[in-house]
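To assess whether the prediction recovers the assembly geometry, we first specified each molecular entity separately, as shown.
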Amino acid sequence: MTTKLLVVDDEPRTAEITAELLRRAGYAVEIAVSGSEALQRVRSNSPDLMLLDYEMPDMEAPEVLDSLRSGADRIAFPVIILTGARHAPGDQVLGIERGASDYIAKGTDRQVLLARVRGALRERAGESRVIVNGRLRIDLARGQAWLGENALKLERRPLLMLQFLAGRPGEVVGRAELLERVWGTSYSGFEHSIEQAVHEIRRALKEPGWIETVRGIGYRFVIQP
Amino acid sequence: MESATGSSSSPELAEALHRLRSTLARLKAELELAQADGTPVPAERLLGDLNEALAILRAVEQSAFGTFTVLVVDDDARLAELTARGLRRLGYDAESAGALRDQQPRELIVFDLSLASGISETAKSALRAARPIVVTGATDPGSRALAASLNASDYLVKPVELNDLVAAIKRRVAVAR
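The predicted structure of the complete assembly is given in tokenized form:
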């Protein structure tokens, strides 16, 4: 299925050219030229990601973000804020507290723009899912995993890691990808965090044969018979 | 008389604005020429000029607002970008690179020590001048000495939590002021 993006900018030419760049990268792109139009479009057809101009006459980005949340504790899709000016840190923190995923200055290279779009989409993918694999069931929303009837005692990181591996059974998942998907934005950078998590997962599962170490590369969730 | 941005930044600002105007003027002249002669627009050269203009504009903004860029350099490019994104979310203007590149003014460098062996002497002396924050996976005294030889403002051992990196950035900025 094609990934749907919504580009919001009060300057139609800016919106159109941004949309065109993204279309050429294979995304289906819609445009909104005001904050209120953006909110309308989201209500009728929620995008997979929104690129939002910070400065618009009818609403600034923080206000749009607040409306998107409307009671929920988070926005259902990632929002990248495009800024015409480099803001003082205070403004950016304001956006973050309201749920933006990333920032990008207008005029940034198109490759960088595309990389940030991909990054934000990757980060959001695979969250809040229930995964069932053999006797193993993982429910991230409830922060719990079960093997058969037994609830597994796992902290957040090992649980996320188990969920991520179990979501791609039989596939070798590299360390860099695990760090990105499980450890998110912290510069944890290192092996021993991953090893520790694997150790905890194995201990919680209490039986061997679920997660295989692929030396020098990463880990594999073994396809269950 | 002191300006709002501090007396020391004014010559920097004036210089950047001067360069911006001359780059834009060159761009305009090229386009006027192409239009007058009916010749094709030299797209590649004009794009180069525009990129230069945007880079100067950034220098102007940073000088005017007293902000700076953090460049995270790590041989693991994805990890570098994750770190940069984390910093952007905390309000920093941050970028990532998988290898050291030419440094820009008002750029603060977070440098993965494992890349130190592969850089030229020229790059090394530029890095020394930038007083990088050095990040390393090893704790042996050798790497600490190597970090010291790069004139590191801070030395962090992986795994580095984002908060610790931010603290190092704040220390580095405080020293610069």
